[in-house]
Design goal:
InterPro entries: Aldolase_TIM, DeoC/FbaB/LacD_aldolase, LacD_aldolase. The protein is of the alpha/beta class. The protein has a single domain, classed as TIM Barrel. Helix content is 41%, strand content 19%. It is globular.
Amino acid sequence: MTNDSYTLKDIARPSGGFAMLAVDQREAMRNMFADSGMKQPIADNILTDFKVNAAKIISPYASAVLVDNQFCYSEIVKQKAISDNSALIVAGDLFIPGNGIPVDNVCIDPNIDAQEVKQNGGKALKLLILWRQDEDAQQRIEMVKEFNQKCHSAGLLSIIEPVVRPPRLGDKFDREQCILNAAKELGDLGSDLYKGEMPLFGKGESKTLLDAAKKLNDNINIPWVILSSGIHENLFCRAVRMAMQAGASGFLAGRAIWASTIGLPDTELMLRDISAPRMQYLGTLVDEIMASR
């Protein structure tokens, strides 16, 4: 770590909790626009404009905003789209498509210069790790350690995001157990923050969900937050509440905040009317739970 390294306080709310916005989705976001009925092909500038607008409108209520290099990082920096009270996080991962899906594999993006990110006001980098039970654990561990080194040598925070996937070879897939196994494998390697999947997709009885989140908490030895992919937006507030009661410190989410505005007319208006109030409420919820600890 350098002497001027950032700490988790730099991406947290004053309460110490995290209410962070993600706009780093790539081809998955293009697919969301296509699924909304928008005329295809969906041009890159449509994604860029949406991401920049979302950052401008929602960041005043977010402790940090996660952006991607492919579509919006440079434009967000150029337009100073992120509010002064919010921090910039840059995705340090390169998505490799294959087998008919937008993200079949992931590596550390060699085009992301950590020092340059810091000069542009960035506080952290984020790395997605696809976790499959039939793939080499040591390879994943080495990638996380390399990523941590890349972040810390520049004084940036390291955020890792393990997401479980079914095995390539057709073995049985127990999502819930794999989420725990991924946390046990990667949750104590020197990263600063763990961005995890919510057990049970946030569904089911409260006690069942809380117990599952506590099991996840027991396997992570660093602060952690939940993501929103796969969780119905109407269940996300409860998922945040349950995860935090189990030991999480907030969330880093995109779809639960802005997905319902994609494809609607007057996107900026919808982001103001729907997404910004949702983010504001979630931030208040995070603060309340942090204060009760």
